[in-house]
Each structure stands twice: as C-alpha cells, then as structure tokens.
From TrEMBL:
EC number(s) recorded for this UniProt protein: 2.3.1.47
Protein name: 8-amino-7-ketopelargonate synthase
UniProt cross-references to CDD domains, sorted A to Z: KBL_like
Superkingdom of origin: Bacteria
Organism: Gimesia fumaroli
Gene (UniProt): bioF
Length: 396
C-alpha cells in the first residue's frame, strides 16, 4: 500500500465510523475531589468515574506517593523481572496477598495487561476457553491471543455453558473466564453456579474482579467473597485502577501459581513495572479500604437510591443489578449522544456507551457512582435527566 493509499484507507474508515455515529473525540479532563471534574472549562459532577471509594484524591495516598517519589523517582526503569521490582512492589504484593487471604500475589502494569497476559499464558491451542459474551475486552483479547478453541456463553442462562462443557473431551484444559461484575451492565456473574460447573467438569475458573475489588464482600475482597466462593476460584484477578484509586493489575493465589505467572506471563515479563510511587499509594489505599468500611456502605446506599428512582421511569430500561454501575439503556446511539451532551450542559458528566463496546441496539448512558456523590447531586441529576428524556425519548 502506497502512502497516499494508506491515507485514503484511514480517511475512508474514519468516514465509516462517523457515518455510524460512533466517532469518539478526545477531550481533556481534570479530575477534582468530591466526585467532580472540569471538562472544557466547565465544572461537572462526574458520574463516569471508577474511583468508587473516592480514594484517588485522598491526601493520605497523595502523601504516600509523594514520599515514594522523592525516594525513588518517577519511573520503575525496567520490567519487574529485570530490575524494576522495588521494595514498594514487594510490600504491595504482600499486602494484596493478606487482603485477598492468599499465599501470594503478583502485580501487572494494568488490569488490561493482567487479563490479556494471564488468559493467553494459561490457555493454548489444545485447550478450550469458555468466555462470557459480556466479558471485558482484555479477557476476550486474551482468549483470542491464546489460540485456544473459544466457546461463548451468557451468564444469565448457563445451560449453554453446561452443554458446551459436556461436549469437550480429550486432554486439553477447560478454562471458564468471566468478569465478576460486568462493567457495562453492572450485572453480577453467578459465581456459585460457575464454581459448581467448574468442579463438575474439572475446569479452571478464572474471574476478573476489576469492578468488585474494594467494594463487594464483607471485607471488600470482591464478589467471590460476597458469595462465599473465594476459596473455590482458581484464578482471581483484580485491578488497582478503580476502587483502589491508583493503577495496576494483580493476581492473588497460591505461591506456586504466582511463581508460574512470574515466569510465564508475557505482559508482566516484557513491560516496565508500575511506578514505585503508585505502589506506595496503593498500599495506603488498601489500609483505608479495610479501616473505613463506611465508604462502601455510603456507596451502596447512594446506588440503591438512584437505581430505584430510575426504575420508576417508563421511557428507559434499567437492568436489574446492584452496586455503583447503573446503565440507562436508550438503544439508539444518536439519542444516547444527545442526552449525554444535554446532561453535560446541565452540569453532569455521564459515559455514553455505544457499539462496539456494547451490542447493537443497546447504546446506553453508564452511570458509575462514588461514595463522594451527595444525595443532592443525584436528585439534581434525576431532574436534568427527566428534562432531557422528555425532549429525546417517547414514553414506552
Ligand atoms: N476488567 C474490567 C472488567 C474493566 O472494566 C477494566 C477497565 N475498564 C479492566 C479489566 C482493565 O483494567 P485497567 O483499567 O486497570 O487496565
């Protein structure tokens, strides 16, 4: 392809994205404390953040990071395997293992890198991976990269998964891969049934607790803890970028499994380790999460209030789920974009999610709450949403 042909190809693909109303522009945003942000000069209530426990701006995390920055500088300088693993990495891995109640834990540069790397290291051509259709892109990409046979199932009807598990015979591993809390729906994986199936068919169950770490379960370990199955899940992955308020992915498990991951997972071997200051902040965050349980209680109270209110609206669909992710399904991508723009004018930043991130016909506003949002913020949001729905959507 010549250089002009390449430019033409880029232009033509961009046109297709625009024609389908799926073009995404890049905006510069400034996070503020208290569930707020500034976007294009306007201060907004931020209903699109995964900082569920309002820790990203916490002064204690900032102080921990600042002290580690002064001590160790900014970058880690090399991959963890070569020479990038500082005492802050060791401390965080030890603390994560204690928090998760496992023998050991291992860090990754991001949750995406953890999912991509772990699935593609665990599975290979002779294996079969069973992947929920709503799994995060990083898990789906990991399944594809592994070269394993891929079987897609739905967590709201596990009959297909069981039938597919029955069909697989022979030597290869069977690996069931699922988010615990689905990021675009807020729906919960049926982890008890998945553990039962995994045990019945001797499959490895791997779960991504990205949206559950820190907020679900009696001590905030995640949905597996909430449902009493943490000890039955073979591979538990989490991220530090959401409720923990920092950055990085991790896996918690037996010492042998963690040693194996250290030696085999390419996204950890070939990528620079997390900045030490981020690890110091995450250590502080884990302490706060355990000491200040009220943050989770407030978060769930706010979410319950907003979900109940939204479910009374007749012109939108609110899937039944629980927790701080609340999708408002509007179906049409243009209407979704219009309403998101009007809400922004009214002072609220809300994620507008369209295909390919979600299936065709399910474009939505995705609300994610933090414990910093006040009751008054939510009441004002509901009023602005009602005004915008009245302009854009007919009652069903
Ligand atoms: N898993 C899920 C379910 C997610 O929603 C995300 C982030 N959007 C990730 C993994 C990736 O995590 P990170 O942002 O830490 O790379």
């Amino acid at each position: 392809m010549s250089s002009p042909e390449f430019s033409e190809w880029i232009e033509s693909d961009l046109r297709q994205i625009r024609d389908a109303a799926l073009f995404r522009s890049r905006r510069t945003f400034r996070p503020l404390p208290g569930g707020r942000c500034v976007l294009d000069g306007q201060t907004l209530i931020n209903l699109s953040s995964n900082d569920y426990l309002d820790l990203a701006h916490d002064q204690r995390l900032i102080s921990a990071a600042t002290a580690a920055l002064a001590e160790m500088g900014v970058g880690a300088r090399a991959s963890a395997l070569v020479s990038g693993r500082t005492e802050w990495h060791t401390k965080l891995e030890t603390q994560l293992a204690q928090f998760e109640g496992t023998e050991a834990a291992i860090l990754f540069p991001s949750g995406y890198a953890a999912n991509l790397g772990v699935v593609s290291a665990l599975a290979s051509e002779q294996d079969t991976v069973f992947c929920d259709r709503l799994n995060h892109a990083s898990l789906i990409d990991g399944c594809r990269l592994s070269g394993a046979r891929l079987r897609v199932f739905r967590h709201d009807s596990l009959g297909k998964l069981k039938r597919e598990l029955e069909k697989v015979t022979g030597e290869g591993k069977k690996i069931i891969v699922t988010d615990s809390v689905f990021s675009m729906d807020g729906s919960l994986a049926p982890l008890v049934s998945l553990c039962d199936l995994a045990e019945e068919f001797q499959a490895i169950l791997m779960i991504d607790e990205a949206h559950a770490t820190g907020i679900w379960g009696a001590t905030g370990r995640g949905l597996a803890e909430e449902l009493g199955v943490a000890h039955r899940v073979m591979v538990r992955i989490g991220t530090l970028s959401k409720a923990v308020g920092t950055l990085g992915g991790f896996v918690a498990g037996s010492s042998a499994m963690i040693d194996w991951l250290w030696n085999r997972v390419r996204t950890q071997i070939y990528s620079t380790a997390l900045p030490p200051a981020i690890c110091a902040a995450a250590c502080q965050s884990l302490e706060i999460i355990q000491a200040e349980q009220e943050r989770r209680c407030i978060l769930f109270e706010r979410a319950e209030f907003l979900r109940n209110e939204l479910q009374q609206r007749t012109n939108v669909t609110i899937p039944s789920s629980a927790g701080p992710i609340i999708p408002i399904i509007l179906q049409d991508p243009d209407i979704t974009m219009n309403i998101a723009a009007e809400l922004q004018e009214a002072g609220f930043l809300v994620g507008a999610i369209r295909p390919p991130t979600v299936p065709e016909g399910t474009s939505r506003l995705r609300i994610s709450l933090t414990c910093a949002h006040q009751q008054d913020d939510l009441e004002r949001f509901l009023k602005a949403l009602d005004r915008s729905l009245a302009r854009n959507v007919e009652s069903r």
